[in-house]
Structures are given as structure tokens and as C-alpha cells.
Specification:
Elements (H helix, E strand, L loop, with lengths): L17 E2 L5 E2 L4 E3 L5 E3 L4 E5 L5 H10 L4 E5 L4 H7 L3 E4 L25 E4 L1 H9 L4 E16 L12 E12 L7 E6 L2 E7 L4 E4 L11 H12 L8 H15 L12
Parallel strand pairs: 5-6, 5-7, 7-8, 8-13
Antiparallel strand pairs: 1-2, 3-4, 9-10, 9-11, 11-12, 12-13
Length: 263
Amino acid sequence: MVSGVFEEEMEIGSSNTRKGSGNSEETGRRVVDMEGNGALVLDAEVLILDAGAQYGKLIDRRVRELSVHSEVLPLSTPISMVQLSGAKALIISGGPNSVYATDAPSYDPALFKLGIPILGICYGMQMINKEFGGSVVKKETREDGQYFVDIEPRSPIFKGLGKRTEVLLTHGDSLEKIASGFSVVASSGNIVAAISNEEARIYGVQFHPEVDLTADGTQILRNFLFEVANLAPSFTLRSREAQCIEYIRTSVPSNNIVLIIIA
């Protein structure tokens, strides 16, 4: 287990070994302590900041299926750790809370000053809108299930789609006043279904692109990763294997034996 808060950053593949702030020696990975939960490898291109989402790990899976390395961290992750990761894009997940609730997940507003692309999903979109001066209200009726939404196909997030698509919506709160600098790029009747600030490369969708019930969800995620964030699809199963081996090496003392049985 790594006992320090942050280990030193080292070049991948370096033959040198350096001491970090804890008791272990690491080679070639950035490693941090997660409050006693062991070592966490932070070299992902996309960080998924979890606001308590039902589908948080599914977002992670969808991004990796598009051959982009992602990791899931709490929304409350310190900005210093986000910067240390070197992530090139952020995805803020959905969650069960209202953005105005006293127990709403905490976050560092400095996330929005990093200058990297951000996609907010469901709660994540509402949080973005509130952060930039917009408002969110509780509607008299909820949207739960599959709905057709009208979209603006000229928006980079909807590139290659038609003017209408079917999505999964699960929300009671909705955007009312749109934040300064943002525009509505999708709607479900009179309810805002997506917003964008193309200059800042910040987007929000009220629906869930990570689920199969959203017909064009994979294309929307692909657009965010490759058209907006300009990432390359380079993460493979072999990359994941190497990452797991490195995780074990940095987490388990050298005098311990690990047996892995794969059925």
C-alpha cells in the first residue's frame, strides 16, 4: 500500500527506481494514496467524476470500448489529483441529488478552469449549468423512460446524427435559465435535453448516452472523445493487462504472493 498522498511522477518505462513520499518504490507510473484504499494508477486520458451515478461504471466501460483509457473517481476528487493525472477530458456523471440539495456532492469549481473538454451527463449537465450562472428547477412531471428529442446536428457532440433521436431520460429537475455562454442543442418538448459551449468545449446532456436505450449514445460519446477532445483510440486489452500488472506490483509488498485464477 502506498502511504504517501502523491508519489513522484516518473517516465513510463524508465529503468530507474525512485522513492516517493511513502514506503514503497515505484517505477514508471503515477501513484496516489486513496485514503488507505491502496495504489491507484493515474494515467487515464479521461477521468469520469462520479456524482453517485447508477451507470457510473457503464460510462467507464463505454469509453474503454471506444479504445480510450478512462478511470472513475469521486466528483469530490481534489483538483490537484485531477491535474496530476494528466487527463485530457472529463466526464461528470449523473446522480440522484438535486444540485441545490444540502447533501449534493461537493466539487472543486477549478475543474472548469483546466481548459480541457468536459461532458456532463444528467446531473452533470445540471451542475454545469448552475456553475455558470444558470438555474435548475423541479418540474411538475418527471421524464422517466425513452423519449424522442430534437437535436441540432451541427453541434459537434451530435455530428453525424439526424435531427431527431431516441434517448433514455431519468430526471425530475430540469434546466430553466440557460447559463451564460451556453446554447440549447437538444430539447424534449419544452425541456432542455442538451447544452453546449463550443468555445470552452463544455457540453451537457440530460439523457444517458452510455445505455443501450439511447439509440445514438455510442456515436455521441465517440463525438465527444474524438471530435471535441481530439483523443486517439489507442487503449487496448493489452494496455489493460499491463495496467493491472503494474497495479499489483505497486500495491502488493514484494514478500507477498498473489494467485490469480481466471475461470
